[in-house]
Design the sequence.
C-alpha cells in the first residue's frame, strides 16, 4: 500500500509550485527535488518550505536544513515524520 | 511570459564570509581611514579639489570601471561621453562615499520623502514589514540606514560583502540595533536569511538593478533596450504576503536625501499567480521609467561601473 505521506507531499509539491503537466505519480521518491528533473530553483524551494511549515507546523530555518529536507520526496517524508506533531500526519 | 531564471546565489546570514573569498573595493585597505583623517584636518576648500584630483588619478587606473562607465554614459547620453563626463560619473560616486563616511561618524543627515511617496510614509508609520527594493543610485545606499536610524524601523540589508568596506561597517555601527545585514556571498542561500528576517518582523532591503545575485530575473525596458533585471523581490512578496516598495534617494539640500518611492505593490489574493506577476511587472516597469526620468536630470546618479544589464531579444 502506498505511503499516504509520500502521496500527500507529492500533491503538495505539484499544487504549491503549480507544476503543469506533472502529476504526483510522476515524482519519484528518491529523485532530487531541487536541481533534479522537476527543474526547481531556490525560490521554489523557499516557497515549498513556507508551505510545508504552514501545513505541518514545522520550522526549517536554514538553507542547510532545507537541503537535507528537500533532498528528495523520501527524505522530505522522513524529515516531516521526525519534526511534525503526529496529529499533522496523514493516518 | 517565460522568465529567464538565474542561478541560485551563493550567500549567507549575518556572518561575514571568509576574507579569502571576498571581493575588494578598489583602493588600499587604509584608504577609508586616510580619507577620514584628511576630512578632519583639511578645510573643505582644499579637501574637495584634492578629492577630485585623487578621483581623477584613480579613474585613470581603473580601466574596466572606466570602460563600463563609458558604455553606460554612451547609452544614457545617446552620444560618446567625454573624459570629463566619465570623471564626473566617478566623482559623484566618490562624493557619495565621502558622505557615507561623514554620516557614519555622526554628521546629521535627514531623509525626506518626495511628493507621491505616501505609501512609504504609511508603511513606516504603521511599522508594517515590507520588502524594500533599492538601486545603486544617488543616495539610495543611505535609504536603508535612514529607514532604520531615522524612522526607527528594523531593516535587514542584502549586501555583497567586500573586504574593505569601512563605509558600510561604520554606518552599520552607527545604526546598530536598527540595521543588520544578510550577505549574499558568504556561501549559503540568503533566501532563508530573508525568511528569518521577515519572521522576526524586520523589513528587508534588496537592490534591484544588479542581476548577479538575483535568484530570478526578467527583461524590462530600461535605457533604451529590454534588459535583464532582478525580479526576485516580487516572488518574495507573493511567498511572504508582504508589500514591495521601490525607492531611490537623490541629493536634496545639504544634509538631506530626498527619497522617491513607488506606491506599495501587494499581491492580490483574489488574482492568479500569473495575474499578480503581470501586475508586479507593470509596477517595476513604472519605477524604472521614474528612474530614467531622474537620470535625465542627472545621468551620473546611477553608479553603474559594471557591465550594463544584458539585453534580452524580444523573442525571449
Sequence:
Amino acid at each position: 500500500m502506498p505511503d499516504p505521506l509520500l502521496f500527500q507531499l507529492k500533491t503538495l509539491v505539484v499544487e504549491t509550485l503549480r507544476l503543469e503537466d506533472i502529476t504526483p505519480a510522476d515524482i519519484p521518491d528518491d529523485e532530487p527535488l531541487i536541481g533534479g528533473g522537476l527543474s526547481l530553483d531556490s525560490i521554489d524551494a523557499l516557497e515549498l518550505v513556507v508551505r510545508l511549515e504552514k501545513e505541518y507546523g514545522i520550522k526549517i530555518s536554514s538553507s542547510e536544513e532545507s537541503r537535507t529536507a528537500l533532498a528528495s520526496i523520501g527524505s522530505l517524508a522522513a524529515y516531516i515524520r521526525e519534526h511534525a506533531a503526529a496529529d499533522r500526519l496523514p493516518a | 511570459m517565460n522568465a529567464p531564471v538565474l542561478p541560485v546565489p551563493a550567500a549567507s546570514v549575518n556572518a561575514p564570509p571568509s576574507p579569502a573569498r571576498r571581493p575588494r573595493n578598489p583602493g588600499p585597505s587604509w584608504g577609508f581611514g586616510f580619507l577620514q583623517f584628511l576630512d578632519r584636518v583639511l578645510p573643505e576648500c582644499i579637501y574637495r579639489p584634492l578629492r577630485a584630483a585623487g578621483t581623477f588619478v584613480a579613474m585613470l587606473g581603473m580601466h574596466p570601471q572606466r570602460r563600463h562607465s563609458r558604455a553606460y554614459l554612451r547609452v544614457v547620453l545617446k552620444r560618446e561621453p567625454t573624459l570629463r563626463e566619465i570623471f564626473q560619473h566617478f566623482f559623484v560616486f566618490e562624493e557619495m562615499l565621502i558622505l557615507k563616511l561623514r554620516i557614519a561618524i555622526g554628521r546629521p543627515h535627514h531623509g525626506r520623502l518626495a511628493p507621491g511617496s505616501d505609501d512609504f510614509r504609511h508603511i513606516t508609520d504603521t511599522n508594517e514589514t515590507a520588502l524594500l527594493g533599492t538601486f545603486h543610485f544617488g543616495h539610495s545606499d543611505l535609504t536603508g540606514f535612514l529607514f532604520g536610524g531615522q524612522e526607527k524601523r528594523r531593516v535587514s540589508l542584502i549586501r555583497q560583502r567586500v573586504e574593505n568596506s569601512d563605509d558600510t561597517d561604520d554606518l552599520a555601527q552607527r545604526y546598530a540595533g536598527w540595521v543588520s545585514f544578510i550577505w549574499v556571498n558568504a556561501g549559503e542561500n540568503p533566501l532563508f536569511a530573508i525568511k528569518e528576517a521577515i519572521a522576526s518582523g524586520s523589513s528587508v532591503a534588496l537592490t534591484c538593478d544588479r542581476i548577479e545575485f538575483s535568484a530570478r530575473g526578467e527583461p524590462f525596458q530600461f535605457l533604451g533596450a529590454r534588459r535583464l533585471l532582478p525580479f526576485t523581490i516580487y516572488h518574495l512578496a507573493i511567498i511572504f504576503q508582504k508589500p514591495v516598495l521601490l525607492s531611490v534617494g537623490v541629493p536634496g539640500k545639504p544634509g538631506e536625501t530626498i527619497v522617491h518611492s513607488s506606491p506599495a505593490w501587494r499581491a492580490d489574493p483574489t488574482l492568479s499567480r500569473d495575474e499578480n506577476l503581470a501586475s508586479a511587472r507593470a509596477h517595476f516597469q513604472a519605477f524604472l521609467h521614474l528612474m530614467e526620468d531622474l537620470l535625465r536630470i542627472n545621468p551620473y546618479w546611477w553608479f553603474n561601473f559594471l557591465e550594463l544589464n544584458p539585453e534580452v531579444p524580444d523573442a525571449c
Summary: The longest helix of chain A spans residues 42-56. Chain A touches chain B at residues 18, 41-43, 45-47, 49-50, 60-64, 66 (CB under 8 Å). Helices of chain A lie at 4-16, 42-56, 63-69, 73-83. Chain A has a mean pLDDT of 90.
